[in-house]
Amino acid sequence: MCLAIPMELKERDEYEGIVELGGVQRRVSLLLFPEAAVGDHLLIHAGFAIGRVDAEEARLTIEGLERLAAQARPT
What is the H or E stretch that residue 50 is in? Predict the structure, then answer.
């Protein structure tokens, strides 16, 4: 099973970009999704951008992941 996290593309050069989620930034490869543009919400898996979602889909996905994480925490 794979998990891709939506992150916003903040900067890019020809082959790599900087994505951000919740103030955390990561450098990722854009080789698999070269049409990515700054401001796009990209699906990131294993350091690679593999797709794009709109801002609302990204928000809903992140909220769902946050709910799952909260349920997994010991009380």
Answer: strand 48-53
Q: How far apart are CA 74 and CA 13, in angstroms?
A: 42
Q: What is the pLDDT of residues 36-61, one digit of tens each?
A: 999 999 999 999 999 999 999 999 99
- The structural domains of the chain, with segments of one domain joined by +, span 5-72
Does pTM surpass 0.70?
yes
User: DSSP string of 6-35?
Assistant: EEEEEEE-SSEEEEEETTEEEEEE-TT-TT
Q: Which fold has domain 5-72?
A: SH3 type barrels. (2.30.30)
Please name the amino acid found at residue 30: L
Chain centroid to CA 6: 3
Q: List pLDDT tens digits, range 7-21.
A: 999 999 999 999 999
